[in-house]
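Why should sequence recovery work at all? Because a backbone constrains its sequence more than one might expect. Tight turns favour small or flexible residues, buried strands favour hydrophobic ones, and helices have their own preferences. The token representation captures these environments compactly. In the example below, the structure is given first.
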């Protein structure tokens, strides 16, 4: 990836990015010559941020109130002389929160300036259809949205598309005293920040295509989520396709208890009339170990799609990683081993993949 920041005064940014990839295919002599493929995606963009704060973080101390003693059961047999016929309630403290609405608007153009294939012509003809692909990386970048794979359908097309992303985030600023009223190890101005909600909208337009408006519009993508509290989040994603009037969407319920994460997800694909339920749970122990289990099932066919059990370990000082997994599919049952060494990657801890 080549990333060039042309202008960034702080309020907005002009940027150019070029992502390129190269594949080399080694083919048996009996099936002809080897093959190689090179392509790249050029993205030119301008983006800017807007924000507005609603509410204010305040500590409100409510004055003590009188309470009639006649309504108080003191648990004493008989009566005692009263100095007054009322008592003062305990002083009440209330904390208010503030919510910041952040908007990021990005206008960008995607284009494939160069794409080359050399070598085995039989293999080249093979990757022109979805049935001839090993995975989506085998397709040409300018054509990968045409093969109907779900993972590429949801991406913004690369071939001469003008697009916009309009992302909204709502971040709540809460005083820690609201949740830890008896703790004295922090100051009053110590806050927690929670992403309460987000809505991300993306839409593209083919500049080179002819035809009517439906054929020139890319899919409409809407990603959204809401956190009822830091441990409970609901997500809804939907992608609508104008030309076919079909959609792909999913609804997810995520529970994050820190060391334990739980996922329940329902997915619908209108192109294949496919309904999938996926569940997963993982447990992190001693910072270095992650144990996880995941399963996906097809509602229509009432059969297993995939089941995966995995144990991951990250060595001390983030120097090495080891993962052992058992993967089950209808026609596949395997045990695998992943091992890697860290050569200075600051984000190496991301090797410990959790559910979300």
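From this structural description, the recovered sequence reads:
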């Amino acid at each position: 990836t080549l990333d060039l920041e042309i202008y960034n005064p702080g309020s907005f940014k002009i940027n150019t990015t070029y992502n390129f990839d190269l594949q080399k295919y080694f083919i048996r002599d009996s099936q002809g010559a080897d093959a190689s493929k090179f392509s790249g995606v050029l993205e030119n963009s301008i983006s800017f941020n807007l924000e507005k704060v609603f509410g204010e973080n305040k500590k409100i101390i409510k004055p003590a109130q009188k309470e009639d003693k006649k309504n108080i059961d003191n648990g004493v047999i008989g009566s005692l002389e009263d100095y007054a016929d009322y008592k003062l309630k305990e002083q009440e403290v209330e904390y208010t929160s503030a919510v910041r609405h952040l908007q990021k608007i990005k206008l960008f153009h995607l284009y494939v300036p160069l794409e080359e294939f050399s070598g085995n012509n039989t293999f080249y003809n093979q990757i022109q259809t979805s049935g001839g692909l090993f995975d989506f990386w085998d397709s040409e970048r300018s054509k990968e949205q045409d093969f109907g794979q779900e993972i590429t359908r949801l991406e913004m097309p690369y071939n001469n598309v003008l697009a916009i992303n309009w992302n909204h985030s709502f971040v709540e600023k809460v005083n820690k005293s609201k949740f830890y009223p008896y703790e004295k190890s922090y100051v009053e101005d110590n806050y927690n920040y929670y992403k309460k909600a987000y809505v991300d909208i993306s839409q593209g337009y083919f500049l080179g295509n002819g035809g009517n408006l439906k054929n020139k519009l890319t899919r409409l993508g809407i990603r959204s989520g809401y956190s009822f509290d830091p441990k409970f989040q609901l997500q809804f994603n939907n992608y609508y396709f104008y030309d076919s009037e079909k959609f792909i969407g999913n609804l997810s319920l995520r529970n994050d208890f820190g060391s334990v994460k739980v996922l329940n997800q329902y997915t619908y694909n209108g192109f294949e009339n496919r309904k999938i339920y996926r569940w997963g749970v993982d447990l992190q122990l001693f910072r270095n170990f992650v144990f996880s289990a995941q399963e996906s099932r097809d509602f229509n066919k009432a059969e297993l799609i995939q089941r995966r059990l995995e144990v991951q370990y990250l060595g001390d000082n983030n120097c090495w990683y080891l993962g052992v997994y058992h993967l089950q599919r209808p026609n596949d049952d395997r045990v695998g081993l992943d091992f890697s060494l860290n050569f200075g990657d600051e984000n190496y801890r991301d090797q410990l993949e959790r559910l979300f």
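A few observations help interpret the result. Confidence is low (pLDDT under 50) at residues 182-186.
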